[in-house]
Amino acid sequence: MRNHKILVLLIAAVASPVVAQISDKPWTAQWITAASAPARDEAVLHFRKIIDLPTKPEHFLVDVSADNQFVFYVNQQRVGSGPSRSDLKHWRYETYDIAPMLRAGRNILASTVWNFGSHAALAQVSDRIGFLVHGQGEVEHVADTDSSWEVGQENAITTLSPDVPGYYAAEPGERLDGPAFDWNWESASISDKKWQEAATLSPASLRGEADSHNSWWLVPDPLPAMEMKLVPAGHVVRSVGVQVPSDFPAAGLTIPPNTVAFILLDNSELTTAYPDLKVAGGAGSTVRITYAEALVDASGQKGNRNQIEGKHIVGLHDEFLPGGCLSCEFMPLAWRTWRYLQLDVHTADQPLRIETLRAWFTAFPFTERARFHSNDQSLSKMWDIGWRTARLDAHDTYMDTPYWERLQYLGDTRIQALISYSVAGDDRLARQAIEAFNNSRIPDGLTQSRYPSSLVQMIPTFSLLWVGMVHDFWIYRGDRNFVRGQLQGTRAVLDWFLHQQRADGLLGKIPWWPFVDWGKDFESGTPPQNEDGGSSVITLQFIEALRYAADLEDAAGAASNAAKYRAAADRAAQAVLKSCWNGQYELLADTPAQKHFSQHANILGVWLDVIPKSKQKMVLAKILPSSSDASLVGQVVPPMTAATYYFRFYLARAVEHTGMGDDYLKLLDPWKQMMSLGLTTWAESPEPTRSDSHAWSAHPNYDLLTMVAGIHAAKPGFEAVLIEPHLGNLTHVNAAMPTPKGTIEVEYDRVGTRLTAEITLAPGVTGDFIWNRQRSPLHPGKQEISLH
Q1: Residues 52-75: what's their mean pLDDT?
Q2: Cα→Cα distances 617→185, 285, 430, 633, Å
Q3: Does a cis peptide bond (omega within 30 degrees of 0) precede residue 249?
Q4: Confidence band of 631 (pLDDT split at 50, 70, 90)
Q5: What is the pLDDT of residues 322-366, one digit of tens each?
Q6: Are residues 194 and 247 in the same domain?
Q7: Domain range for residue 386?
Q8: What is the torsion angle, in degrees rounded to the nearest 10, for the CA atoms of residue 331, residue 336, residue 339 and residue 345?
Q9: Of 77, 111, 726, 732, which is most buried with the most CB atoms under 10 A?
Q10: What CATH number is attached to the domain comprising 254?
Q11: CATH label of the domain that carries residue 434
Q12: Angle at CA of residue 231, ends 226 and 235, nearest 5°
C-alpha cells in the first residue's frame, strides 16, 4: 500500500491482460496459503517470491487466481487484480504478460490476497483462502506457486461491519492499523515482515480434468480488465473544526494536534472508485472515511440530493490509523460508491498532513458508441444519467446497485444487457451473465434469481426472464452457436413451468418468491395468487418465455419443441382472457377471482396480444394516468397497482406494440422528477428509495434508440433492419446505434407534416423505413427520404 497505486495508468500500457488459452496439460502450480491462516474466516495474506532471470524476457506469461481476491505486483508495480466473480465450478484465472516489468537478474513477484469470510459480499463464492500463479512455459514455471513462495499474514487489515440501515450485501468496510502495517512488504530488500514458507494445498485443476484436486475448477476469464482512471474525489462543501483551503483536496491540508475535524466532499455525481488517501505524520490519529449516495435529514429522508443544509451523512465507512508515517497511502481493497464522502479526523499530539485525496474510477470498460441528440435538451441529460447508471452497475458482473448489493439479478441484467448491445455494441459482459445463470440452475431446472451468490435465492419468474434474455441476445447479436449452447437450460426452465400449468391453462401456485415488481400493494413484489395459483401476471410472463423459446427452437431446427411451446402459450393466453378479463371494467384482473387489478397484467396482456387488438389502445389509455382520451370520460377504473420504474420497461414495449409510440415521451415524467431531485443516476423505485443507482431504471437509453429513433433488428444480428421512428413532439433527432454489422445512423428533421430522414446503413445491410404507415426500402450506405 505504499504509493503502488500511482503506477496503474502507466502499467496499463505495458501489462495489459492477454487472452488466455485453455491448456491441454495439467498445471504444475500448487494452490498455496499460510499454515497459520484460518481456512474460511477473515484473513489477509501477502505472498512473495524472488526469481532470478539471466536476461530480460520478450514475453513471460503467467496465470493468476485467488480465493477470494488478489492484487498482483511485479517489482513493486501493480499488474492487475481479480479474479472476476464466478462459482467454484467455473473459477476464473487472469492471464498477464509481465515481461515489460521484468529485468535481467533479481525480480520480486508479490500479491495481496484476502478472504473476508462471513463478512464477504454476498456475490462472493468461496471455498477457502488460497493463491495461485502458473507459468505457461518452461521458463515461466519458475513463477509457479509452491513452497518456494513466502507468505506473511497481515493482521493490520480487518473488516468493519457496515453501519447502514436496511439490507446491505456488498463488501464490508475496512480498517488499516498503520503502526502495525509493514509499508514495505512488497520490497524484498527492506521489508520487516515475518515471512514463512507457504503451505501448499493441492495442485491446480483445470475444469475438465480427469480428477480434480480441489473445489476450484479453473477456467480462463473471458472479460477484459476493469477500467482504472484517476479522477477527483469531490469538492469541499462543508468543514468543521479546521480551515480548509479552496484548492483542497488537490492540494494538501494540515490538521493541527488534538483536533476533531469533519470535511464533507461532494463529487457532484455518483461514482464507483477506489479512494486514495495519502498522509504524513499524525501519530495517534484516526481518519474515518464515510461514503453515501446522498445526505439525509433528521428523519432519514434524502429529498433533493443537491441540498446540503440540514443534512448529514450516513453510510459505509473505512478507518485508517496513519501512525506517524513519513508518507503512507490508504486505499481499501474493495472499491466504494459515493456521491458524498466525508473525512472525520481525530488527531492526538501530532499534526496530520493530508497530502492528497483522489480516486481511481473503476467499472467495466464499456465505450459509449451510440448517441441520441434532439431539440429537447432534457433528453440529453436523461441519456447521460442513464448511461452513467448503466456504467456504475457493471463491473466484473452486472449488478443491481453498486452501493447496497452488487448482485447480478436477472430482472436488472436483462435490461442492462440490452443497453450494452444498443449503446456500447458490446456483448462480453452479457455473455458472462447468460452463461452464469445457466450454470446457476438447480436440479429442478430453474435458474437462481441472482448469480454468482453464496446464498441461493429463487425467483421463478426471473427464470422466465432469462429465456427472454437469451432471445434478446439472438436478436441483437446473432451468434447462433452461443444461443444453441443455452437451449438445454431454457428447456429445463420451461419444463418446470409446464409442470406447473393447470388444466385450464393458467399457472398453479408458484413457490419460492415469484417477484414481479415493487408495486405498492404487491406483497413483497409478488402479485396476488389464489390458493391454487391462477396469477394472470405470472402466466403472462410464462407466455412471453414460451413464445421466445419457440423462436429459438425453430432457429435450432427443433420444430417439435417449438410447436409444443406455442401450443402451451396459446392455451395459457386463452385461459388468461377467459378467466381474468373483467367485462365491467374491460381490463384484465390479476386472478380469476377478479378482486385485484394491476397495470402489470394489462401491460403484458396488450404487449403479448392476449387482450384483443381492438381493445388494446383503450386498455392502455385506462391504465395510464396521463391519458387524455375523451372516450374514457365517465368510465370507472378500479384501483390498480402501478408499475414502478422497472416495469415501465414492459410498458414501453406495450405502447410501441399498439402503435402508440408517439406517446412514449409522455411516459418519462418519473425520470424528469428524479432529475428535479438532483439524482445523477436512476433510483430503484419512487421515493422513498433505498438505492440511488439501480440498473433496471436505465432503460430509457434503450427506448430512445429503439422507439424514438426507431432502430430495430428485422433479422437476428441485424442482418436486416426496420427503422420506424416515433418522435412525439420532437422536431429534430440525431442518433446512432452500434450493431454487429456496423453502426446505424439516423437524422430526422420535421417541419409541419413533412419529415426529412437521412439514414446510413452498414455495407451489406438492407431494410425498411416506416413513417405514417408509409414504407420505404433502405439500402446499404447513406440515403435521404422525405415523406409527409
Answers
A1: 97
A2: 69, 66, 34, 15
A3: yes
A4: low
A5: 999 988 999 999 999 999 999 999 999 999 999 999 999 999 999
A6: no
A7: 371-708
A8: -40
A9: 111
A10: 2.60.120.260
A11: 1.50.10.10
A12: 140
